[in-house]
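2024-03-11 09:14:02 INFO worker-7 job=invfold-0412 stage=load source=structure_tokens
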């Protein structure tokens, strides 16, 4: 077994026992990337030399952080000092942009001794559900390379599933951690909005974006979340809510808790194998001592439409900074300043980014703001209220992550609305700002992973980890590996 297939917990034990060194672990991940990444296209920038230097300097003892010496990969929207960061967009790739600072999350991981070994693929500026909008090309699913790995954190998820790293960092705006984690059979969490800092992470939709880890099991997620969570003076949206020791309470179990099953999530069009796998997982929760109760989230049907007004509106604002003046793509001999702007953005941005900028600009324009944006904000409140009401009767809500297993590459290439509907089960939690965890719960007849989503009230990450951990202890879906 390759060292790169170890979990954080397993690798940490070997490091502290001096059975292996951090350099051994980093080299194992490098070797794995060189061996298999040509098939899946997850890694877009290799930081191998610097990573090995850092690993050789790393001193680990019994007092070290569980993440000391652990190699990870980072979604290509996190600022990392001196490392090219492109958001997988030609507007930054065509004229290399290397940040002069670290994102808060990168800084916190450095402080505990974790080692960044490179950047991974994403949809352009995280806009997409399949990594098909990346300027580097699509990331392929390690279980079936004719299918997508999901998005926008498809590179982050595929890298974990393919054992190219021990864990990875992603971002989740409309499901971009949970959906790819579900498609490739790893675990991932969207934290409560404000639980982790977004400072230094390129924004898509500022009121919806969250950042979080993807890993090989729930225990690993808990360990990373302990290191990266908490208030940040550089990010005014972060909370001063205390960060629990998530990894210390994993084994508390779920006996006596009530699990909600939303009737709106088992809809016409859901793949029968997905529904069967999730309902079977619910039976496991019952066997662990939990009670199951049907709940209703009546405004779920409006979530996708609401998201695709609010999110593009914020996109249109956030993308305005990429004008080719301060950084990024440039053009030669413009006729005037307007011509310069038009050519920079036309050449630099891909179709999906342009589409969302135009939708957002329209929704925010005079005469349409009240009809679209303001109404969408009202519906967002109603969706959040649905969850608040449901959590008065249940402790957590269990549902599918996606209506189908991973779809084939190109399946939605000419139908952006069909692509948007892939997020139907992951967007409602975004509207409410609540945390949600994706955990593997089965496979389709085509050997494609199926995942379970566990959502809870704000700041309930500790509870979600306990539920996910209990489920993992009772099953072995999370241990399955693709053949590459």
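2024-03-11 09:14:09 INFO worker-7 stage=emit residues=484
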């Amino acid at each position: 077994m390759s060292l790169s297939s170890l979990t954080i917990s397993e690798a940490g034990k070997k490091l502290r026992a001096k059975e292996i060194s951090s350099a051994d672990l980093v080299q194992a991940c490098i070797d794995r990337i060189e061996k298999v990444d040509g098939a899946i296209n997850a890694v877009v920038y290799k930081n191998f030399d610097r990573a090995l230097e850092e690993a050789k300097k790393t001193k680990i003892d019994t007092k070290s952080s569980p993440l000391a010496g652990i190699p990870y990969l980072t979604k290509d929207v996190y600022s990392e000092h001196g490392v090219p960061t492109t958001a997988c967009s030609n507007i930054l790739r065509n004229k290399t942009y290397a940040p002069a600072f670290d994102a808060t999350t990168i800084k916190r991981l450095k402080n505990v001794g974790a080692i960044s070994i490179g950047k991974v693929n994403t949809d352009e500026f995280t806009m997409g559900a399949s990594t098909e909008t990346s300027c580097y090309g699509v990331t392929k699913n390690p279980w079936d390379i004719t299918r997508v790995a999901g998005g926008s954190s498809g590179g982050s998820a595929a890298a974990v599933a393919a054992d190219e790293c021990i864990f990875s960092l992603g971002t989740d705006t409309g499901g971009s951690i949970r959906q790819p984690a579900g498609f490739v059979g790893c675990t991932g969490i969207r934290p409560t909005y404000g639980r982790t800092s977004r400072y230094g992470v390129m924004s898509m939709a500022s009121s919806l974006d969250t950042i979080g880890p993807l890993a090989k099991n729930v225990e690993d997620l808990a360990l990373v979340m302990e290191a990266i969570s908490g208030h940040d003076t550089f990010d005014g949206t972060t909370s001063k809510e205390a960060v629990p020791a998530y990894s210390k309470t994993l084994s508390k179990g779920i006996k006596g808790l009530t699990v909600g099953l939303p009737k709106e999530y088992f809809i016409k069009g859901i793949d029968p194998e997905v529904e069967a796998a999730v309902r079977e997982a619910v039976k496991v929760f019952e066997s662990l001592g939990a009670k199951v109760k049907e709940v209703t989230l009546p405004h779920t049907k409006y979530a996708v439409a609401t998201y695709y007004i609010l999110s593009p509106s914020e996109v249109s604002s956030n993308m305005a900074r990429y004008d080719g003046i301060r950084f990024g793509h440039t053009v030669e001999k413009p006729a005037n300043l307007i011509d310069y702007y038009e050519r920079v953005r036309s050449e630099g941005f891909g179709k999906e980014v342009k589409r969302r900028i135009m939708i957002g600009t329209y929704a925010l324009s005079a005469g349409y703001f009240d009809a679209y944006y303001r109404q969408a904000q009202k519906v967002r409140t109603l969706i959040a209220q649905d969850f608040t009401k449901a959590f008065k009767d249940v402790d957590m809500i269990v549902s599918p992550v996606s209506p189908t297993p991973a779809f084939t590459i190109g399946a939605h290439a000419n139908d952006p609305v069909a692509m948007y509907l892939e997020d139907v089960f992951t967007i409602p939690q975004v509207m409410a700002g609540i945390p949600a965890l994706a955990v593997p719960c089965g496979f389709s007849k085509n050997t494609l992973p199926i995942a379970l989503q566990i959502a809870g009230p704000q700041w309930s990450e500790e509870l979600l980890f306990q539920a996910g951990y209990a489920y993992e202890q009772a099953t072995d879906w999370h241990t399955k590996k693709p053949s590459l």
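2024-03-11 09:14:09 INFO worker-7 stage=report msg="The chain has 16 helices and 13 strands."
2024-03-11 09:14:10 INFO worker-7 job finished
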